Amino acid sequence: MEKEFNLDFKIEEKVVPGSGIKIAERIYINQDHEFQWPSLKAPEDDGKGFCHALRSQAAILVDGTVVPCCLDGDGVINLGNINKTPFSEIVEGERANNLYDGFTRREAVEEMCRKCGYRQRFGV
């Protein structure tokens, strides 16, 4: 990557866990600690913790399905579809509000969230 982007530094010397560096216009490299990717097949934990889902992030899958985060690539937490419902209505819906309010209480209300290691990064 150093050669491709004509960098005058070694990436591994600049990137530290929890932060990143800009290597070109609108291109960044971020590094962080490994975590357990969410899966319905993973063991469930006590559900305590916090997530930024629907506070500072949401994702729209290629078919228009709105999910609370990009880790839900299969659309398990399907909040609605922007091809049928305006985004503002989707994120103000009952399921979205339950998820948001749950994380306000530091509690994962969705099964997928209780099986996500990323949530554990933010503590209880």
Written account of the structure:
The protein is an alpha+beta fold and 124 residues long. It contains four helices and five strands, in the order αβββββααα. The strands form two sheets. A three-stranded antiparallel β-sheet has the order 3-4-5. A two-stranded antiparallel sheet has the order 1-2. It is globular and about 50 Å long. The model has no long low-confidence stretch (mean pLDDT 90).
How many extended strands?
5
Shape: globular
For this structure, the quaternary state is single chain
Radius of gyration: 17 Å
Measured as a percent range, the helix fraction is 10-25%
Distance between the termini: 37 Å
Estimate the mean pLDDT confidence. 90
Largest sheet descriptor? 3 strands, antiparallel
Helix and strand pattern: HEEEEEHHH
Uncertain segments: none
Strand content: 5-15%
Overall structural class, as computed from helix and strand content, comes to alpha+beta
Strand order of the largest sheet: 3-4-5
Tally of separate helices: 4
Characteristic terms for this protein:
single chain, 124 residues, alpha+beta, three-stranded antiparallel β-sheet, two-stranded antiparallel sheet, 4 helices, 15% strand
In short:
With 124 residues, the chain is α+β, with helices and mostly antiparallel strands.
Secondary-structure topology with pairs:
Blueprint: H1 11-14, E1 19-24, E2 27-31, E3 59-60, E4 65-67, E5 80-81, H2 87-91, H3 94-104, H4 111-114
Antiparallel strand pairs: 1-2, 3-4, 4-5
